[in-house]
C-alpha cells in the first residue's frame, strides 16, 4: 500500500472521531431559591427573629438556631447565647430521657417505637443524638434519621443528630443548650441518645431526668463489657429484642441484671432500678417502659430530688462552659497556634517530654493573659 493510502485513511479516522454538539440541559435547581439559600447561610438574623420562630414551633428557625449553637465561630456563639438567654424562661418543663446501650441493642429501633407511641398519645418529641466523631477522619455518620423512617417524618417529632467532634464536654454543653431551645419550641419530651457504650454516657447522664440502658440477650455474658459505673447510672434497664425464640433468653438476661443490681447501693434518688423486657420490633412492652420512666420522674419530682438534680446539672453546665471557653481561647490564640506545631515536632522527635511541651505552651499563654491585664 502507498503512503497516500494511509494518509487518506488517517484523515478518515479523524473525521469519524468528531463529536456532535449536545443539547443544553435545563437547570435542575431554581436559581432564585439557590440565591435565597446562599443569602440565608451567609447572613444571620436578629435575636427576635429566632426567638419568635422558636416560640411558634417553626422547625426551620429551630434548626438554624441549633446550628448557631453548634458553630465554633465567636460571632455565632455570641448570638446563640443571646437566643438561649431569652428562651430560658420558657424551658425546663419537658421530660428529659437519656438512652444508651451496647452496639446492636436496637437503640434507634427502640427510639422510633417509643417515639411513635408518644406521638400517637399527643406528645411533641425531640430526639437529640450524640454521634462520636472519628478520631482518624474527624467525621461522623449521623445516620440516626435514616434509621427512624417513620418518626423522622412525623409532624410531632424533631430529630437532630450532632457530632461530638472529639470533644464530649463541648457536645454536652451544646446538647444542653439545644434542649433549652427545643423545650422553648414546645417539645414536652426530649430524648438524648448516645451511640454505643463509652465516655459519652457520663455527659448524657448529666443532662437528663431519667437514664435508660438498653441491653440484649444472646450475646454471651450479658454483663460483659458493661461497666459498673454505667449500671449505677441507669435509672432503668430494658432488655430489647424479646420476641420470637429470644423471649426466654431475654427474661433470663433481665433476671441476671436484677441479681447484679442487688449488689449495688440504692440510688441517690431513693428509687430502685427497674429491669423490663421489651421488643421494639413487635412493640411489646413499649408502653410499659414508658410508664416506668414516667413513674420514676413523677416520684423524684415529688420527693424533691428532680429539682436538686437539675440544679446540679445547671452547675455542671456552667463548669463545662468555662472549660470549653478556656480551651477555645487557648487554641485560637495566634501565637499558640504558631508555636504548637514546633512544640509538637519537639515532642514527636523526643527532644522534650510531653509534659514539658504542654508547660511551655501554657507558660506562653498565661504570660499573654498577664500582659493583656497590664
List keywords for this structure.
3 domains, 374 residues, 11% strand, Rossmann fold, 15 helices, Single alpha-helices involved in coiled-coils or other helix-helix interfaces
Structure description:
This protein has 374 residues and is of the alpha/beta class. It has 3 domains: 35-89, Single alpha-helices involved in coiled-coils or other helix-helix interfaces, CATH 1.20.5.170; 91-303, P-loop containing nucleotide triphosphate hydrolases (Rossmann fold, 3-Layer(aba) Sandwich), CATH 3.40.50.300; 333-373. The chain is built from 15 helices and 7 strands. Strands 3-2-4-1-5-6-7 form a 7-stranded parallel sheet, with helices on both faces. Strand 6 (236-239), helix 11 (247-261) and strand 7 (274-277) form a beta-alpha-beta unit. Helix 4 packs across helix 5 (74-87) and helix 14 (334-348) runs antiparallel to helix 15 (354-373). The longest helix is centred in the C-terminal third of the chain and has 28 residues, at 305-332. It is globular, with a radius of gyration of 27 Å.
Topology, pairings included?
Blueprint (H helix, E strand, L loop, with lengths): L2 H14 L14 H12 L4 H9 L3 H12 L3 H14 L7 E7 L5 H14 L4 E7 L12 H4 L9 E7 L4 H17 L4 E6 L5 H6 L4 E6 L12 H6 L2 E4 L7 H15 L12 E4 L8 H17 L2 H28 L1 H15 L5 H20 L1
Parallel strand pairs: 1-4, 1-5, 2-3, 2-4, 5-6, 6-7
